[in-house]
Amino acid sequence: MRYVKYLIIFALLFGGNIALSDNSLFLVDAKDIVPSPLQVGEKLTYNISLKKLPAGKRTDWIVEEEVVNGVGVYRIQSEMKTRALFRFYKFRNQQETHLNPTTLSPIRFQNYVQDRKYQGVVKINFREGKAEYEKVSRPEPEAQEKREAKVLEIPPGTQDELSLIYFLRSKQFVVGETYFFPLLVKGKVLKATLTLERKEFVKNKKLGNVRTIVLRTSEGGRFWITDDQRRLPVKIETESKIGAVKATLTDVEVVN
């Protein structure tokens, strides 16, 4: 049984074709957090649990600031892999995005997945009004390589699976409002929606008792972000067909 769609927590929360209500607000137009909570060198580590069992570990890291296609961007990396308890099931996911810190839009994205014998790489170059999408995969090492390439039309503010986390952290929300934004995932541009459900305090072993905003997606997932200048995602929860999946922030570092 494949667990990959349950372990890639952040993408799972915003997946699906979602019907928008008439009063949904375009999140791209919402005010940005000032000053920006994004900091070069920030490294966040999460424990992933599946049905209360320790299943994996995820690390998100704003590595450095560099120039891509003449634009200054943040190079952001993410890695997730299964823990020792899941050695019978080998899974690894490495992502990298180049995010424009001014427009909060990605410039380039790459996603590598190893799911037991399966291996696949997705590369996306974001242009004005379009995205160049390429996927190379093998269902098993000895199988023939499969290739897919296409150009997609995309609306302004389209996010990839990794950049969306930093996009959400950088925006202001109003309690009770429903927001939408475009998301490019699995070779399709989807309409992702979420609502600022409430504000509440959360106990975290690293940060202590912190006030958070709770974002709820139309698919039922929830995302707790600290209600302060750091805007740190401290907890994520969602339900899957095989049980509850949770991601909990365990460490915050600034790596120079």
Q: Helical percent range?
A: under 10%
Please tell me the overall pLDDT.
Answer: 87
Strand content: over 45%
Main sheet specs: 15 strands, mixed
- Strand sequence of the main sheet, in spatial order? 1-10-11-12-13-14-15-2-3-4-5-6-7-8-9
- Report how far apart the termini are: 40 Å
Gyration radius, rounded = 18 Å
The quaternary state of the protein chains shown equals: single chain
- Total count of helical runs of at least 4 residues: 3
Order of helices and strands: HHEEEEEEEEEHEEEEEE
**How many strand elements?**
15
Low-confidence stretches: 1-12, 14-21
Overall 3D form: globular
The secondary structure category is mainly beta
Describe this protein's structure.
This protein is mainly beta and 256 residues long. It is 6% helix and 57% strand. It contains three helices and 15 strands. It has helices at residues 4-7, 9-13, 163-169; strands at 25-26, 42-50, 53-68, 71-82, 91-100, 105-115, 118-127, 130-138, 146-153, 178-185, 188-204, 208-217, 222-226, 233-240, 243-254. The protein has a 15-stranded mixed β-sheet. Strand 13 and strand 14 form a beta hairpin. It is globular, with a radius of gyration of 18 Å. The model is unreliable at 1-12 and 14-21 (pLDDT under 50).
